[in-house]
Amino acid sequence: MDNTALLTDHYEVTMVRAALRHPIAHRKCVFEVFARRLPDGRRYGVVAGTGRVIDELARFRFGDEEIAVLERFCDAETIAWLRDYRFSGDIDGYREGELYFPGSPILTVRASFAEGVLLETLILSILNHDSAIASAAARMVSAAGNRPIIEMGSRRTHERAAVSSSRAAYIAGVAATSNLEAARTYGVPSAGTAAHAFTLGFTGPDGPDERAAFAAQIEALGVGTTMLVDTYDITAGVRNAIDVAGPELGAVRIDSGDLGVLARQVRDQLDSLGATGTKIVVSGDLDEYAIASLRAEPVDIYGVGTSLVTGSGAPTAGMVYKLVEVDGTPVAKRASHKESRGGAKTAVRAARPSGTIVEEIIHRTGDALPDTHGLVTRDLQIPLVRSGEPADDLPNLSDARDHLGRGLVSLPWEGLGLSHGDPAVPTRYVLS
Amino acid sequence: MDNTALLTDHYEVTMVRAALRHPIAHRKCVFEVFARRLPDGRRYGVVAGTGRVIDELARFRFGDEEIAVLERFCDAETIAWLRDYRFSGDIDGYREGELYFPGSPILTVRASFAEGVLLETLILSILNHDSAIASAAARMVSAAGNRPIIEMGSRRTHERAAVSSSRAAYIAGVAATSNLEAARTYGVPSAGTAAHAFTLGFTGPDGPDERAAFAAQIEALGVGTTMLVDTYDITAGVRNAIDVAGPELGAVRIDSGDLGVLARQVRDQLDSLGATGTKIVVSGDLDEYAIASLRAEPVDIYGVGTSLVTGSGAPTAGMVYKLVEVDGTPVAKRASHKESRGGAKTAVRAARPSGTIVEEIIHRTGDALPDTHGLVTRDLQIPLVRSGEPADDLPNLSDARDHLGRGLVSLPWEGLGLSHGDPAVPTRYVLS
């Protein structure tokens, strides 16, 4: 299952087959990944997945098992070429955790036509998924301010997408994940609270026994644990929790009801019981708007699930992978509504000396940077792959997380708003 | 990566840890998977993923690598128990391709508390994803009538979710997928057309050369292929395609613009060129509504991407996994808004003699079936796992597809409508 060569569309392979008998197959091409627009009303996007693209490239190999599938519709020449396939080109792109806007050249693949076209589906799958999750998660992290978010949405998305979602959410600034595979694979801190099933499990012939459940939890996990207090009656649940754990209890979690009202009630009750340090975790269909609406409430930690792993209304980033240059000649589709700009592009972001960004400038690669009227510019593309191998000094997950943190504070103030609106900064094309 | 044991939430493991020192860990429990409601306005849901759940159970094992992650927060007793973990319980459930409604007991897991609680995340991830895709795809297949749909959305979703999406879409009646891994793993027929990049790749110093691209495609793939005619000018593209391929060309594809208007123009042009048998494939942001709106147009095949793999507005099915019985005693959470009904449940669907279904009846397992007033009933749950092993004679993918076909024609006529509304049939609870 580690092999990624068949995470590809049928037509990529037939296009290679049709190309191989012609010079086109081996022409030097440039492919670009970009999003024509941001999801409805969003002010910015967050790049994520680039690191996974680089990892999966190494597993993009056609072995005997993969070839057996392709032999159904490929000739011997194509099969022979695929057997030897190793991506040998260069890739540049926006680093993970970089903000992006409509048209941003997020990834630039330089390779022969045949080598490059074959990667379209895999690259887009990864970037479209991971960037959608990171973009939604970043809004939630902004809305939460200094309060940490635990990502706990694994059960609401595909089991493998869940792992990548945890990774993307971590880039976006989420504090921890419930997903253990993400902890193993990516080192994302894992965390958990308690389940209703656990409390319900202590039901005996005499009925429920919440205190027995809480006592068992404390016995195994210590008083620093988080108790789920809303299985039966919340007020009784909080009383039971503190009775059993004492006022040093780490946290209580509320997973249903009017979370704002309940958080205030529970805070008052905890304080009256002397548990002034016991934190309140809230969860239950939270999205960035619900998080923001709880700003004034005594909430310490948010648990976010469904809305995070489904991109909060935008489950895919809508990025496309387009051939933009063939042997140095810009090319572009001309059909209505889906036009794109030919030619390889370089992107910089221009900021005031204060650090606030003003615009993204996209110009033809190789051309001089246009006049930026005294603004400070920063190159957005970095080397990711050189001659098929990962470039040196690639940023890691922690770098990506830090980079996004800096990026978000560089947005004009309205750019962090949750309300629908235009991209936070305009994109200026300077294409000769 | 085949191991699935860590596709689990941190708290499932800590709950096991807290339970192990108490009788609860080994009590006979029943867990149920159900959806409290259908996505907004949907009339029915389609179960998918059950077969994958059974497959992944066999890979849910804690080996040395998995244990190394858990040792960070587990004691020796828990680790020892996890090392020996083999699910040894029974699972019954709705077959893949079965319709479901709010409250339908889609999966029933009978096991000790500890064995059962550990599977919550994996089971929900699979069922929530696959059922969301199948439910959306079934609406598209209905809207398309007798015209086939090719699923080509892999690039818009996580690379592994893409494979499962193809599988779920196939259950829903989609004819083929672009995804080669789905062809390998599940035997879903794969299909492809042509890429804009291919046509653009034939750009030379003298400019574009669409005819050269088409000729190369015919040379490799034969006249039965599908030509993408909207890279430059569609009318010129159709002319070039027939000039090069002759009137026996298999199909042309239109991927942009007003698809209804263009389909009519292209049909007229093809017919005037004698290519009366050349089919028209349309694609480009199609969902069930766009498909329905093209009913009167001369479209032969739909290519559907984004909306299918993202569940057309409902990317997760919202199913939950709840402990409903402990040692024969029904248990249920009592908190507001998230109540559930305790006790193991049996479900039947009642139909008129004509086959049209009238209601779903859910009663306590073991109780006699309530009066159905002369309606014909069908049991909805089948044995899926017995003592931890797959049950005999499990339905395969093709069975699931056929089963859904029969299910859809059993819906009252308004149940197949695309408009928002109530579930197609009511659910009647008869719980003593």
Which second-level CATH architecture of the largest domain in chain A applies? Alpha-Beta Barrel
Portion of residues within helices of chain A: 25-40%
Oligomeric state as shown? homodimer
Class of secondary structure makeup of chain A:
alpha/beta
Name the average pLDDT of chain A: 96
Largest sheet of chain A: 7 strands, antiparallel
The CATH topology name of the largest domain in chain A reads nicotinate phosphoribosyltransferase
Gyration radius of chain A, in Å: 25 Å
Which range does the strand content of chain A fall in? 15-25%
Strand adjacency order, main sheet of chain A: 13-12-1-5-3-17-18
Backbone shape of chain A: globular
With helices defined by DSSP (H or I, 4 residues minimum), what is the helix count of chain A?
15
Low-confidence stretches of chain A: none
The domain tally of chain A reads 2
Terminal CA distance of chain A reads 46 Å
> Mind telling me the CATH superfamily name of the largest domain in chain A?
nicotinate phosphoribosyltransferase
What is the element layout, followed by pairings?
2 copies of one chain form a homodimer.
Chain A: H1 10-19, E1 28-35, E2 45-46, H2 50-57, H3 64-70, H4 76-83, E3 90-94, E4 99-100, E5 107-112, H5 113-117, H6 120-144, E6 149-151, H7 159-171, E7 176-177, H8 180-186, H9 196-201, H10 210-221, E8 226-228, H11 234-245, E9 251-254, H12 259-272, E10 279-283, H13 288-293, E11 301-304, H14 306-309, E12 319-326, E13 329-330, E14 345-351, E15 357-364, E16 376-379, E17 381-386, E18 389-390, H15 397-409, E19 427-430
Parallel strand pairs in A: 6-7, 6-11, 8-9, 9-10, 10-11, 15-19
Antiparallel strand pairs in A: 1-5, 1-12, 2-4, 3-5, 3-17, 12-13, 14-15, 14-16, 17-18
